[in-house]
Amino acid sequence: MEPASEIRRAWLETEYRVRLRRGGYAVIRISAPLPAPLHEFLRDERAPWGFITAWNPHAKKTSRERNRTAQRELLTALRGFGIEPRVGIGVGTGKYDWREPSLFVTGLNFETLDALAHRFGQAAIVRGIGFGIAQLHEPL
């Protein structure tokens, strides 16, 4: 098990990629403004958003089968709120070479995003308000 500081460093250095409508992707980076290509997915410039996954609960490597099942459950839960998220992927860089399928979510408040993160055992999510700065948030 990696020390908490190493895991946190990995999260801070990760590229949070969101698939765009016309192909390609935009990269969300912690402590940077939401990339302009993602503005079109927000209802207004003050809308909350999040980047969330159900993969590898509690920051522990989990089987692909278990991860896929959990991710489908997360997608079903989001659709239950009337949300159709954008497909994304978290991509670790440098020595943190990993990938986690993820979802870019708009239209849910932070309390609901935190509840989903807790339900799916996520030690951290990325979130922000409108065009503002992306924050690493640790709800557990």
Can you tag this structure with a few keywords?
140 residues, alpha+beta, seven-stranded antiparallel β-sheet, 7 strands, 26% helix, 26% strand, globular
Tell me the domain tally. Answer: 1
Which class do the helix and strand fractions yield? alpha+beta
How would the global form be characterised? globular
Number of DSSP E strands: 7
What does this structure look like?
By secondary structure, the chain is of the alpha+beta class. The protein has one domain (4-137). Helix content is 26%, strand content 26%. It is built from 3 helices and 7 strands; from the N terminus they run H-E-E-E-H-E-E-H-E-E. Strands 2-1-4-5-3-6-7 form a 7-stranded antiparallel sheet. The longest helix has 17 residues, at 64-80. The radius of gyration is 14 Å and the shape is globular.
